[in-house]
């Protein structure tokens, strides 16, 4: 019996030692918040938000200003002052600034929109058809605006028929240093819904297979590009590349002018929908190509 009692005491002593040992081990909650924040700086915003759910320490560390300032573009103060107001910028956390700038921010009477890509923090800008200079746009014999849910701006410009087609976009804006692409979002044919299904009327589509459309781009610092392309794929929205430009000076505005033109007056053109022009990092266009 004495041996039994001795064995039991030995087991209890061993369990106590293991319990004390396990309680002395460190876990994720013991990592200093400053260390966690330093690690999070090297992750993309999506991963930071996922790790914020690990525990309270990670949640607090993920809200540090220096973490989110490292994800904001270099021109974020220009964007924040333009869309959030200087007073709000001084009181908001950098995480809140990032969140607000990732939402669509309209300007110029709602005809343009800028937002940050929520995964990378890069600047993307959209210009509606109403922000573009379109030859003859006020004459309903040639052009009409069509309401549609297929446009982020809820309407598109539709060409019925015309000899001279020219669309010009102009913009002065502050972009982060990098390479950017400009594209037009266009469609041949007029789409609508019938019995809940998407249909596209291409009866008025003509003239685009005779001569190509010319795209031109120029910037205030002397960059230029010209290209030509036939419009194709009736019934489907397509992205037509205008050109690329480089931003080399941080926090300096750059003026951009670009256009789409088919001005050969030997034939009429019609059936074209113009949704918008898009300015985004060149790497985004490369991703679309791969997809």
TrEMBL record:
Alphabetical list of SUPFAM superfamilies matching this protein: F-box domain (SSF81383)
- Pfam families (alphabetical): F-box-like, PP2
Q: Which InterPro entries match?
A: F-box-like_dom_sf (IPR036047), F-box_dom (IPR001810), PP2-like (IPR025886)
> Where do Polar residues bias regions lie?
1-10
Positions of the region Disordered? 1-28
Domain F-box: start-end pairs? 25-71
What's the protein here called?
F-box protein PP2-A13
Organism whose genome encodes this protein:
Medicago truncatula (Barrel medic)
